[in-house]
Amino acid sequence: MQRYLLYANGPDRVGIVASVTKSLAELQCNLEDSRMTILHGQFSIMMVISVCPSSGDGAPASPAGDGQKYEDTNSKKLIENALAETAGHFGLYVSLVTLDDLSSAVPSQAVADASSGAVEYLCISVHGADKIGIVSSVVGQIADSGASVVDLATRLVDNAYVLVMTIALPEDASAADLEKNLVRVSSELGVSCNVSSASPDVL
Amino acid sequence: MSVKRVVTHQEIDKKPALDVQSIDNFCLTLARDLLDTMHASPGCVGLAAPQIGVSVRAFSVNVTGHKKTKTCHGELVLFNPKILSGDAPVTAREGCMSVPELTGDVTRFENLAIAGIGINGEEIKIETDAFEARALQHEIDHLDGLLFLDRLAGPGALHIRKVYK
Fold it and tell me: Of A85, A83, A13, which Cα lies nearest the Cα of A47?
């Protein structure tokens, strides 16, 4: 099985997701993990897609369904070509990266530990008047604690800024110390900060 | 009639509001202001005193006719409210007049019991559920200096309040 990371962005319009996924389905691509959002009218989507082999030799099935096999490099070109029409129609920027190339990267310690359950997840919410440096100051404290940001969203509306993130805190780090530092930094910035547990209760 | 300006989340007092000592003329005027402002604000089902710039533990709520309402006590004004018990946490999306451009997914008790003081000085106990329970918890949070932004379930729980045409 060959996996790709597909990224697309452009002005939001009705039908983008339908068109992209239709092209992928026609190529027998399986849509795995994905995340889509709209920021200031700009559509953006990131998805992991996979191409299933039609036989044990690892070669993906031909989109034509005629039993013809082709190499992975060709499957990438086929996907890119199929999406080119959609990209042109909607004015999208599209990139396709072979995921195996990315998976060789060494994961951060926090992410590695997350798979073993030896981390505490925290949800951090910061809000107040917008100014330069809110994210960098807050995230700087998080990095200093050894924690890793695993999800983050910010919104700016009418000069009001909201930052929400989930972080993974290693077992040897202190959530109380981090919260104390975050409250101090937030106070210096003139914004509010709230920290709550986001660790799942396994029942 | 005295409709007050609803302050934004940047202006609102983040410190816990103060208990009232007794229901005096100040409290009665505050109750009238809360109700007048709530009535004058389309779609508003609750308003806490800090939202009109008064750092006192008081709010008004009325969820009558809302599609998510089950149990309903009509129009309420409560002073010094306290949560007695709650159970069955449920996550749902909510907004706030002090955060007009955003909404968020917040987990709150589905079943709730609270106590407080009514405008005649009487002690009131309320057992409720669903949307009224959510509204009461939202308003009590205001009295503790908290907004729904402080209770978001995560980055994916923050949303732009958008009007689709």
Answer: A83
Residues with Cβ within 8 Å of residue A141, at least 6 apart in sequence:
A178, A181, A182, A185
Domain containing A165 equals 109-197
Whether the CB of B149 is below 8 Å from some CB of chain A: the reply is yes
Q: List, in order, residues 6 or more apart from B62 with CB less than 8 Å away.
A: B38, B45, B46, B74, B75, B76
| ipTM confidence | 0.79
Residue A109, SS3?
helix
Strand order in the sheet with A93-98: A29-39, A42-51, A2-11, A93-98
Q: What are phi and psi of B28, to 5 degrees?
A: -65, -40
For chain A, give the number of residues. Answer: 203
pLDDT tens, N- to C-terminus, chain A (203 residues): 899 999 999 999 999 999 999 999 999 999 999 999 999 899 999 999 998 765 444 445 555 555 444 456 688 999 999 999 999 999 999 999 998 755 555 555 555 555 555 688 999 999 999 999 999 999 999 999 999 999 999 999 888 899 999 999 998 899 999 999 999 999 999 999 999 988 877 77
Both A15 and A93 in one domain: the answer is yes
A65 lies in some domain:
yes
Q: Which residues in A have their CB inside 8 Å of a CB on B?
A: 123, 125, 127-129, 151-153, 155, 157-160, 162, 164-166, 192, 194, 196, 198
Number of domains composing chain A: 2
Structure tokens at B37: 């402002």
Test mutation, B107, B141, B158, chain A, max A CBs within 10 A: B158
Alpha helices per DSSP H over chain B: 25-39, 130-143
Question: What architecture is domain B25-160?
Answer: Alpha-Beta Complex (3.90)
How many Å apart are CA A79 and CA A138, to the nearest integer? Answer: 40
Give the separation between CA B148 and CA B92, rounded to whole angstroms. 11
Q: Are residues A7 and A61 in the same domain?
A: yes
CA atoms of A19 and A13, how far apart (whole Å): 11
The full DSSP string for A55-84 is: STT-PBBPTT-SS-B--HHHHHHHHHHHHH
Tokens standing for residue A149: 């940001």
